[in-house]
Design goal:
7 helices; 4-stranded antiparallel β-sheet; 2 domains; about 240 residues; Rossmann fold; binds S-adenosylmethionine
Length: about 240
């Protein structure tokens, strides 16, 4: 089930404000710009592909997302292909030389079977010599321990200031369930989510099952090598 933050057009309008100043696009954008055909899985509001097109990308740019609220915003740009759905319902065949999953979208896959289904479809969508580049938060860095009311942020959206507070409800194995609350004068709402913090050995085993192997791995957005305590597991996976 898609989180309300993404499905509800009103809440989705908060998303880009919450992401302001994000460091990952400086990593992903050159990859997208240098690829002929790009699939962005869990593209959200489509900001990465929008930036690539605005910078003159001449080839195929395709964004896939199951959340109507997010895609409604993405569709403001008509020169990118936007597909409502997920990898369980699509069947691309060796069409893309780059597949990306950004914004920790990979963590929405909560079970090994969900990861298997996604990776199988991504492997099938990749052209010969293609790359799948994505990140997942490193469980060893325990990012969820900082998802507390003391770390609430204020964002300005639709002309009003909205306080966004994240609170963890439960940590069960590698699954973290949390609630994000939104509050502005005269209005409040919330969105419940669960994300999986997959450890790197299990991730590599699932990649291998799908016929993919990590060709490069980074631990942060500055391009630092992955270490046991890195905040991110950023993976460049290739067929083989
Ligand atoms: C945190 S957002 C990231 C959006 C975008 N990639 C970014 O970097 O800003 C996660 C996105 O994953 C999408 N999503 C949820 N379940 C999904 C699924 N099964 N397959 C693909 N995308 C999914 C959500 O709708 C949401 O847009």
């Amino acid at each position: 089930m898609v989180d309300r933050l993404f499905a509800d057009p009103h809440l989705a309008s908060l998303y880009d404000e919450l992401c302001a100043g994000r460091p990952d696009f400086a990593f992903y954008l050159p990859l997208v710009r240098s690829a002929r055909a790009v699939l962005d899985v869990g593209c959200g509001t489509g900001e990465l592909l929008r930036l690539a097109r605005a910078a003159g990308h001449p080839g195929r740019l395709c964004g896939l997302d199951p959340a109507e609220g997010m895609l409604a915003r993405a569709r403001a740009r008509a020169d990118v292909e936007w597909v409502l759905g997920d990898l369980a319902t699509t069947s691309w065949d060796r069409e893309f030389d780059l597949v990306v999953m950004t914004g920790h979208a990979f963590q929405v896959y909560l079970t090994d079977d969900e990861v298997r289904t996604a990776l199988r479809a991504i492997r099938a969508a990749l052209a010969d010599g293609g790359r799948f580049v994505f990140e997942t938060r490193n469980p060893a860095a325990r990012a969820w321990e900082r998802w507390t009311p003391e770390h609430a942020v204020d964002v300005v959206a639709g002309g009003r200031t909205v306080r966004v507070t994240t609170e963890v409800r439960e940590v069960a194995g590698d699954l973290v369930a949390f609630t994000q609350s939104y509050a502005a004068p005269g209005w409040s709402d919330e969105s419940r989510s669960t994300l999986r913090f997959l450890d790197v050995d299990r991730l590599d085993a699932l990649l291998a099952e799908a016929g993919l192997r990590p060709a490069a791995r980074y631990g942060d957005w500055a391009g630092g090598g992955f270490t046991a305590g890195s905040p991110e597991v950023i993976t460049v996976a290739v067929p083989g």
